[in-house]
Description:
By secondary structure, this protein is α+β, with helices and mostly antiparallel strands. It folds into 2 domains: 3-125, PRC-barrel domain (SH3 type barrels), CATH 2.30.30.240; 126-186. The chain contains 3 helices and 8 strands, in the order E-E-H-E-E-E-E-E-E-H-H. The chain has helices at residues 36-39, 116-120, 127-185; strands at 3-6, 19-20, 43-46, 49-62, 68-76, 84-89, 93-98, 107-112. Strands 2-1-7-8-3-4-5-6 form an 8-stranded mixed sheet. It starts with a strand and ends with a helix.
Amino acid sequence: MTSRTPLNTAIRPVLFGASLLLSASAIAAPEGLYSANELLDADVYAKSDSTEAIGEVEDVLLDNDMRVHSLVIDAGDLLDLGDKQYVVDAEHFTVETRNGDSLENIEYSVHLDLDAQALGEQPEYTDTWWNQAKDNLQQAWSDTKEGAASAWETTRSATSDALDKAGDALKSAGEKTQQAADDATQ
């Protein structure tokens, strides 16, 4: 049985979300459990040729939420890309499973929605890329936390103001009703 899945679902270091491939072109139910260890060294295929591997998985990169951020693809000397490693974001690949019922024989292959030339245009996995990506993701995480806190404060303040105005309106209506009642009894 063969399955394909985008790896942008939440995982723990040894788990990957997946979809079961029913035919060559139909994606179905999630498979549920994947091994990161077995994904390492999986063959990688370009969009244009699903028969000849253009590299292999060197590393799986996770974000702060333990979701797959990207894969590091080792292109070796294939396709004149040089002996380089490229970072491919999660939205650009799927994983196919073979022998998924046997821990001893499980195999994965990674299928890119990129051709070989587009793979060569992906960022290289270097210390510079690592440090920039780490800093950018940390800043995005920080901005998200600050944005959420700010949104909460704005919502809380607006709700408080609305409740104060509603309370004032009710108090005024009550006073007018009392005045009308007092006038009617005189």
